[in-house]
Structures are given as structure tokens and as C-alpha cells.
User: Which sequence fits this backbone?
């Protein structure tokens, strides 16, 4: 079975922790409010807007004043554009958040993202295969679902099996965003 099929199968098996519904709705609401900004990046990268929103949440807490790649500040206190100092280092400086997102997403693009499995594989590659190599479900993808039971890289290269990621994973956000997108399309088709 291709790895993308495995990701898709796991996606459908994963149940979102219902206790996290208010948090998921709040994060997805913020992503949806900025859908047009994510669509601008989608036009330049061919990466779906909703996946861009999920990665933006994971990397920089949906802050448009931060580098898309890792959450470092885009600008200094006096407005000077800054390069990234954390991994990935030395990106930028950029004029705006969109330039930051387009640059890193273009560098990390690994082919067409036609299926959900392709998109999940992209998200894991984007974050790195450290969890996959350990045989652990990546919190980057699975936190907030029934498939994540703990373990986290607490900083670059340092894994703690007892640590638990409190940030929502891409999958629980995607389940909410894709459901919303589908209901919007149905409403548009049936006035």
C-alpha cells in the first residue's frame, strides 16, 4: 500500500477528541477569516489554502507578523525586516507574511497534492520525519485525535516520550475545515 493511502486510511480512522471542539472551532474560525490570504498563497504554490492555514497555525500560531516557516518575528521593533534565527535558519528577510509563506512552501513542495494522503504526507515532510522514524504518530498531524497518545520533540533534535503536545494537529483542523468547505459548496449549489 502506498504511504499516501496509509495516511488517508489513518485520517478516516482518527477520531477528534470532542473535548477539544471549542478550541478547534476557534482556530478554524481564525483560519476561515483569513481564507483569502491563504488562497493568495495557494495561487502561487498550488498547496490548498486549508493546508496552508493548518501549517500556519502549527508553525506560528496564525500570527501574520511572524515568519510562516517557524514563528520567528518578520520585523524588528523599528520595522526592519528580519531573517529567521531558528530552524530553518536564514530565511528572508521578506516584505510581508505572504512572501515568507510562498518562499518556504515553494522550497518544500514535493509534487502535486491531489489527494488527502498527498497533503498529509506533505505536512509530515514539512515538519520532518523524526516521529515517523521512531514509529510514533506525529503530534504535528495527529494531536487532538484518537491516534496520538503522546511523545514530542521539545526542541530541535530532542525527543521526550513523556511530553504531550497541547497544540492541535493538522488532522483535527482539516476535519473541521473540510467539513465546513463541503457544507459551503453544498449551499452554493442549492440556493
Assistant:
Amino acid at each position: 500500500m502506498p504511504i499516501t493511502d496509509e495516511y488517508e486510511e489513518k485520517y478516516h480512522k482518527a477520531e477528534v477528541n470532542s473535548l477539544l471542539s471549542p478550541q478547534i472551532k476557534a482556530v478554524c474560525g481564525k483560519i476561515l477569516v483569513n481564507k483569502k490570504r491563504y488562497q493568495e498563497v495557494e495561487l502561487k504554490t498550488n498547496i490548498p489554502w486549508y493546508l496552508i492555514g493548518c501549517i500556519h497555525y502549527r508553525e506560528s500560531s496564525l500570527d501574520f507578523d511572524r515568519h510562516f516557516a517557524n514563528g520567528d518575528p518578520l520585523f524588528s521593533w523599528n520595522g526592519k525586516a528580519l531573517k529567521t534565527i531558528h530552524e530553518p535558519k536564514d530565511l528572508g528577510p521578506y516584505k510581508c507574511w505572504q512572501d515568507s509563506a510562498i518562499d518556504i512552501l515553494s522550497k518544500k513542495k514535493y509534487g502535486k497534492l491531489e489527494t488527502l494522503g498527498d497533503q498529509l504526507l506533505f505536512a509530515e515532510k514539512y515538519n520532518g520525519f523524526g516521529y515517523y522514524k521512531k514509529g510514533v504518530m506525529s503530534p504535528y498531524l495527529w494531536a487532538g485525535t484518537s491516534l496520538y497518545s503522546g511523545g514530542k520533540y521539545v526542541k530541535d533534535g530532542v525527543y521526550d516520550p513523556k511530553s504531550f503536545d497541547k497544540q492541535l494537529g493538522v488532522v483535527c483542523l482539516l476535519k473541521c475545515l473540510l467539513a465546513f468547505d463541503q457544507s459551503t459548496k453544498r449551499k452554493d449549489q442549492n440556493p
Summary: The mean pLDDT is 91.
